[in-house]
Amino acid sequence: MRTAEEEPLQPLLSGRAQKKKQKFKAKKAQKKALVKEQKKREGERKRKEWEGRVAGLSEEEREKLIGLRNGSRKERMAKKLEERESKVKRLNESKTHGQNIVVDLEFASLMTPSEINSLVHQIPQRCTIKFRSCIGCFRNSLNPRTDQGENVRLTSFAKFQIMIIADDDMQILNCYAMNGRCSSPGHLWLTGCHGEMEIQLQRLPGFNKWIIERENRPYIEAFQDRKKRLVYLTTDSENILEELDPRKIYIVGGLVERNRWKGITMKKAKEQGIKTAKLPIGNYMKMSGSKVLTVNQVIEILLKFLETRDWKTSFFKVIPQRKRCEADSEKNRGDSNREDNEEAADQVKRKKKRVESAD
Predict the structure, then answer these.
(1) Rounded CA separation 219/227 (Å)
(2) What is the pLDDT of residues 76-110, one digit of tens each?
(3) How far is residue 216 from each of residues 77, 94, 223, 324, measured CA to CA in Å?
(4) Which residues contact 199 (CB under 8 A, 6 or more apart)?
(5) What is the rounded distance in angstroms from the CA atom of residue 233 to the CA atom of residue 298?
(6) Rounded to two decimals, what is the model's pTM?
(7) Coil, strand or helix at 287
(8) Per-residue buried b or exposed e for 98-125, using 16+ beta carbons within 10 Å of the residue's own CB
(9) How far apart are CA 273 and CA 54, in angstroms?
(10) Which domain of life is it from (predicted)?
(11) Distance (Å, rounded) from C-alpha 73 to C-alpha 71?
(12) Of 236, 265, 266, 232, which is closest to residue 250 (Cα–Cα)?
């Protein structure tokens, strides 16, 4: 049974807001049903296509085609298994050698159930998504499918169909997925997992099998013997994070709607007597509007830095263009073009030298 402290604050909604919420839910359910129907149609289309291919073949040709199909499937499965084993190995090694990164989930009492769900599952829509050929049901409405996971710009019709799957990336789920893809993953911790937060996390597919540290206790208790190593990352800090120290334990606040609770992470760190720091974003770019980043954006920046040891590259790879000042975006594009031109010129010079040597 929940205590008064654990009970999330429920905002009072006006009649108009309630109608808007109900309308949104109905629209979402409609889109989900549409995606389900599209997937069913795609399955039927593939089945008919296969039946058409083998219908006019002799028994020998049919067996050969089925053998090729099964062989291709086995190769894909073997490749997936190899990738999974490599990922598991890297994540297990990160427990002893990886950078400790904590997501502080103790703010559940300050969020509504929908905000908790947003933290666990969703972030705002993006017009460009990363997809693989498994999303075959959108073949007719998207650009040609690809097995390379390329970024594909969607048509408005495709956005409508795929929205229930790709309108929102998943914050905590995305953090774990990004970490698994890293060549040098961090050692991720979820602290303060209890109540509604724990319920929502348990609903994530395969959550109990994640190679991640789950703690019901607050981080201040979980790391009481390493309190001096704790560093809370907050935009309100005056200390700029110049480098990631492998001995330190960096904490990211798991809070949605931070504008409603300004300075809360800084206040918490001060009360607990732990160090604070902020990412050196201002040294490399100017932010337009809100400087608040989502949990997965902060963690992705940290993971990128662990791979590249370059803050500028990490920021421009992760921070959405809409959050940057136009001048910075243009400058970064100019730098990228200049680097591409220099690389192309170098390739021409090398080719010229090879030709001269051959002569």
Answers:
(1) 9
(2) 899 989 998 999 999 999 999 999 999 999 887 77
(3) 36, 21, 13, 37
(4) none
(5) 9
(6) 0.64
(7) strand
(8) bbbbbbbbbbbbbbbeebbebbbbbbee
(9) 71
(10) Eukaryota
(11) 5
(12) 232
Going by the DSSP 8-state scheme, the letter that residue 240 receives in this structure is B
Q: And the tokens for 49?
A: 């296509």
Residue linked to tokens 């291919």:
53
What residues have CB less than 8 Å from 238, skipping those under 6 apart? 278
In whole angstroms, give the CA distance from residue 189 to residue 201.
13
Residues in a beta bridge with 276: 232
How does pLDDT run across 308-337, given as a tens digit for each residue?
A: 999 999 999 999 888 787 655 555 555 555
Report CA torsion sign: 92, 243, 314, 163.
positive
User: Is 194 within 8 Å of 217 (Cβ atoms)?
Assistant: no
Radius of gyration of the chain (CA): 25
Q: Cα separation of 97 and 99, whole Å?
A: 7
Residue 359 to residue 357: CA distance in whole angstroms:
5
The rounded distance, in Å, linking the Cα atoms of 156 and 127 is 9
Could you give the CA distance from residue 247 to residue 249 in angstroms, rounded to a whole number? 7
Structure tokens that stand for 337 in this block: 């073009």
Q: Which amino acid is at 185?
A: P
Q: Which amino acid is at 222?
A: A
CB atoms within 10 A of CB 329: 16
- Residue 156: how many other CB atoms lie within 10 Å: 7
For the chain, report the end-to-end CA distance as a whole number of angstroms. Answer: 84
Number of Cα atoms under 13 Å in the Cβ half of residue 257:
15
Q: How far is CA 106 from CA 9, 129, 263, in A?
A: 14, 31, 15
CB distance 276 to 269 below 8 Å: yes
Ranges under pLDDT 50 in the chain: 1-10, 122-169, 354-355, 357-359
